[in-house]
Amino acid sequence: MTISLNQVGKRYNYDWIFRRFSFTFTGTGHYAILGANGSGKSTLLQIISGHHHHSEGSIAYQSAEGKTLPQDQFFRHSAIVAPYLELVEEFTLEECFGFHLHFKSFLPGLTPKEIAQTVGLEKAWRKQVRNFSSGMKQRARLALAIFSDVPVLLLDEPCTNLDADGVSLYQQLISKYCSNRMVIVSSNEEAEYGFCKERIHITDYK
Ligand SMILES: Nc1ncnc2c1ncn2[C@@H]1O[C@H](COP(=O)(O)OP(=O)(O)OP(=O)(O)O)[C@@H](O)[C@H]1O
Question: Which intervals hold domain ABC transporter (predicted)?
Fold first, then answer.
């Protein structure tokens, strides 16, 4: 997968958040988008994911086979973790995973129950999401994204609400399941993006 941004800018009303952002994300690269609070990291990630529109410039997506993908098809090839993405509160974890499987498959070789176990949620299998702690919800979000069989992972503050064990689990999952996929992390925390060789400072594009 290749994601090419050319002179991309985003404006809210009269305020430009960033401008003239040109960058190509390729293959199995691991990228960190860095910057202070409010600098536009999440906004850039949401533009890449297609959740937000950019105000100027262009974005092109190309599959590994060299086919151009329309922006509205990119979600089929990517998975996102972000604090603002809600899980369905009425579902149990089992139902949550079942619902997710209508849209995306999990990586081969693991059952949903094994995935729940891997992220420490085996006891929550039949519990409604509304009764999860904030850290349990984050573990569920991470599981749904990292175990999705997609070539691109977009991670916005992926360790939000995780305890020390949770952060260590995140790092293990990244190292075990993400070496052969593109990962883009928007973060201020070294523990979240330490594995990313490529660093992008959003403040360079003001
Ligand atoms: N819907 C919106 N309307 C107006 N301004 C917005 C909107 N969404 C975001 N912004 C502004 O865009 C700027 C960038 O926000 P963004 O959430 O991308 O920052 P961030 O770098 O991810 O911050 P943090 O590190 O705090 O998560 C902020 O000034 C924010 O107020």
Answer: 3-203
Q: Per residue of the chain (206 residues), what is the pLDDT tens digit?
A: 999 999 999 999 999 999 999 999 999 999 999 999 999 999 999 999 999 999 999 999 999 888 999 988 999 999 999 998 999 999 999 999 999 999 999 999 999 999 999 999 999 999 999 999 999 999 999 999 999 999 999 999 999 999 999 999 999 999 999 999 999 999 999 999 999 999 999 999 98
Position in ligand 1 atom list of the atom nearest CA 15: 5
Residues found in the chain: 206
Q: How far is the CA of 38 from the centre of ligand 1 (A)?
A: 5
Q: Decide: 2 in ligand 1 pocket, CB within 6 A.
A: no
**Atom number in ligand 1 closest to CA 43:** 18
Of the residues 12, 161, 205, which should be mutated to test ligand 1's pocket, given the most ligand atoms within 8 Å of the CB? 12
Of 43, 45, 154, 184, best ligand 1 pocket probe by most atoms within 8 Å of the beta carbon:
43
Distance CA 39, CA 154 (A): 18
Ligand 1 atom closest to 10 (CA): 12
Query: Among the CATH numbers 3.30.70.980, 1.10.150.120, 3.40.50.300, 3.30.360.10, which is that of 2-205?
Result: 3.40.50.300
Query: Cα separation of 17 and 10, whole Å?
Result: 6
Domain ranges for the chain, please list them.
Answer: 2-205
Residues 40, 17 contacting (CB under 8 angstroms): yes
Distance between CA atoms of residues 10 and 16, nearest Å: 6
